[in-house]
Specification:
The complex is a heterodimer of chains A (about 110) and B (about 110). With about 110 residues, chain A is mainly beta. Chain A is built from no helices and 11 strands. Chain A has strands at about 5, 10-15, 20-25, 30-40, 40-50, 55, 65-70, 75-80, 85-95, 100-105, 105-110. The termini of chain A are far apart. Chain B has about 110 residues and is an all-beta fold. Chain B has strands at about 5, 10-15, 20, 25, 30-40, 45-50, 55-60, 65-70, 75-80, 85-95, 100-105, 105-110. Chain B contains no helices and 12 strands. Chain B is globular, with a radius of gyration of 13 Å. The interface of A and B includes residues 44, 50 and 55 of A.
Chain lengths: ~110, ~110
């Protein structure tokens, strides 16, 4: 089975721009979660989707948004980028969230 | 809300020696507990998980963890460390119907020859 794939792997943007990150879960997995990882704040939960419904959202500003499609693929969007948004963004999929979450390699976002 | 504390930021251990990583959680009921490992530039890989039942959990790569409710702990152990175990280790806690994991700050393990 193919693992969780995230595209792109690396991204460089400038302040004020917006960005869309993509996550393709393992086939058959309906739950997709997103996490932000930074040296200062560690791993922080962004949101979780199951069957196109957002079931939980972390404590992030409204500039961070996400969605899930009918094929379980998910995207997250960050608008009006700030320097502090530079991070590794990890996506995880599972049959349902409480089972083992399989993480993708992440997208490294650098905001200049 | 649940939270996790990993008291040790960095641990250095000799190859072949035993390893124990500490994890303390805060949650009112029995949580879901996980240990993940992350190698540089990689995503997270699950080592083991605890939902209920036997409090000693066996995982991959020779790791085990013990759930101690009285101490709110879920410490990770390995009897004999290999150089390939050098990585960052994260303890995480989840709650039923909360749909998220809360991670500790992580412990970096260095293995010396």
């Amino acid at each position: 089975k193919a693992g969780v794939t995230q595209t792109p792997r690396y991204l460089i943007k400038t302040r004020g721009q917006q960005v869309t990150l993509s996550c393709s879960p393992i086939s058959g997995h309906r739950s997709v979660s997103w996490y932000q990882q930074t040296p200062g704040q560690g791993l922080q939960f962004l949101f979780e989707y199951f069957s196109e419904t957002q079931r939980n959202k972390g404590n992030f500003p409204g500039r961070f948004s996400g969605r899930q499609f009918s094929n379980s693929r998910s995207e997250m969007n960050v608008s009006t980028l700030e320097l502090g948004d530079s991070a590794l963004y990890l996506c995880a999929s599972s049959p349902d969230w409480s089972n083992e979450q399989f993480f993708g390699p992440g997208t490294r976002l650098t905001v200049l | 809300a649940q939270s996790v504390t990993q008291p040790d930021i960095h641990i250095t251990v000799s190859e072949g020696a035993s390893l124990e990583l500490r994890c303390n959680y805060s949650y009112g009921a029995t949580p879901y507990l996980f240990w993940y490992v992350q190698s540089p530039g990689q995503g997270l890989q699950l080592l083991l998980k605890y939902f209920s039942g036997d409090t000693l959990v066996q995982g991959i790569k020779g790791f085990e963890a013990e759930f101690k409710r009285s101490q709110s702990s879920f410490n990770l152990r390995k009897p004999s460390v290999h150089w390939s175990d050098a990585a960052e280790y994260f303890c995480a806690v989840g709650a039923p119907n909360d749909y998220k994991l809360s991670f500790g700050a992580g412990t970096t393990v260095t293995v010396r020859a």
